[in-house]
Amino acid sequence: MVHSSPPRFAILVFTALILAWTLLLSLPISSREGSVTPLADALFTAVSAICVTGLSTVDMATHWSLFGDLVILAGLQIGGIGVLTLASILGLTVTRRLGLRQRLLAAGDTNPMRMAKGASESQAVGLGDIGGLLASVATSVLVIELALTALIAPRLMAEGYSFWRSLWDGFYLAASSFTNTGFVPLPGGLAPFETDIYLLSVLAVGVFLGSIGFPVIFALYRYVTGGGWRAHKRLGLHTKLTLTTTIIFVIFGWLLIAALEADNPATFGSQNFGQTMFSAGYMSIMTRSGGLGIIDPLEMHGSTLLVVDMLMFVGGGSASTAGGIKVTTIAVLFIAAYAEARGYRDMQAFGRSIPNEVLRVAVSVLIWGATIVLVSTTAIMHITRVSLDVALFEVISAFGTCGLSTGLSGELPESGKYIIVATMWLGRVGTVTMASAIAATSRSRLFRLPEERPIVG
Questions:
Q1: From the CB of residue 262, how many other CB atoms can be counted at a distance below 10 Å?
Q2: Residue 22 Cα distances to 78, 220, 239, angstroms
Q3: Which candidate among 5, 426, 445, 455 keeps its CA 20 to 30 Å from the CA of 63?
Q4: Which residues pair with residue 348 across a beta bridge?
């Protein structure tokens, strides 16, 4: 299974890690009071960390001990990087070489469609570039998180935190933002900094970099170091689609959130124009999957909640630390709709054609994601009797591994917690499972059945 289906193997390891982290977080040493954390809360936190979601049922700033925080930090780093990618990096470090099987293993973590029989190598990252990608992952995680820590720690010290506390909390926030987890170790969360342009800008940059994905970071690095504008063709279709769609959704969310909340006294109503635009832009970036919110969703208008729902459902880039159905999925669907409207036989973007099997996977991921959200929302509404907008927001945040919360997760009964746990797990690995299953079943037939067209639309 390791070599024939890396995505399925990754899911098994992923689940095993969740069980191990649940056990560790259940230990008395993991809680600040030295007591055993209830199984539902330990499991919820373990899944939220490894699935880089950021939802919690306990106070993250006061419940966990130093050991518990270390376990959580290790979990979100593993979940953000990816199980198979991390294994390949460790293997490369030990053996100093990367064979074909190891390259295929790492490739399956970034693109499950690679496992399809007869899949071409016209991929976002070729097998020959896997070694460079792994080095880029390790380097970007180290460099970006250390840089973010160096920017955050002085601001916390200026707020009155001690040097070591500022350094620890700064690294925690850096890792939480870059991995798009959204855990906050500070008492009171980010409420004391909700108008702090400097700190929020640093966190927003971290979330954005994590949400575009390691293949895009790798492509941008090669682009910058390989000739700049004269090497424009170095930026492949995946990179262009990811960056273009991400920027469009950030701007779309920015303008809509600002417009819808401008007259809301509970959110932006008391702010001037500049503060409103900054806060709206920050919240739009957080819907990529960041979760480091500065506004209580319960105080938003219902129309704003719906916009945020849509943004969280889309999420970030493929092979990134973000969740959701991914921006490239929605881009392919819009390109297909445009091609159909214009009567084109194939899909085209940025001077490249997109094969129909990519559309097939995109449609499957969309239907799979919508089904998960529908079933989970129905179950949560039945158990808690909360309104649709509150239940839908919490479920989509769990599915999109975003972490923005109405506070419902902390008030759920055990059955509701397990439903959100399953939603987070499916949101992180379910789409990968579906994509790999669809890719694995791609095969040719020696015959064609008679054609008949049903009425559609």
A1: 15
A2: 15, 37, 36
A3: 426
A4: 353
* Total count of domains within the chain: 1
Q: Alpha-carbon distance 108 to 191, whole Å?
A: 40
- 427 secondary structure, DSSP code: I
Q: Are strands 347-349 and 352-354 parallel, antiparallel or unpaired?
A: antiparallel
Token pair of 156 as six digits: 């916390």
The b/e string for 75-111 (b: 16+ C-beta within 10 A; e otherwise) is bbbbbbbbbbbbbbbebbeeeeebeeebbbbbbbbbb
| Closest by Cα among 399, 403, 401 to 380 | 399
Run of H or E including 25: helix 6-26
Among residues 357, 354, 359, 369, which one has the least CA distance to residue 434?
Answer: 369
CA dihedral over 337, 341, 342, 345, signed as positive or negative: positive
Is 430 among the domain residues?
A: yes
| pLDDT tens, residue by residue, 326-382 | 999 999 999 999 998 888 888 988 888 988 888 888 898 899 899 999 999 999 999
Q: Is residue 160 part of a domain?
A: no
400 domain-assigned: yes
Does the global pTM surpass 0.90? Answer: no
Which range of residues forms the domain containing residue 391? Answer: 327-440
The helix (run of H) or strand (run of E) holding residue 347 is strand 347-349
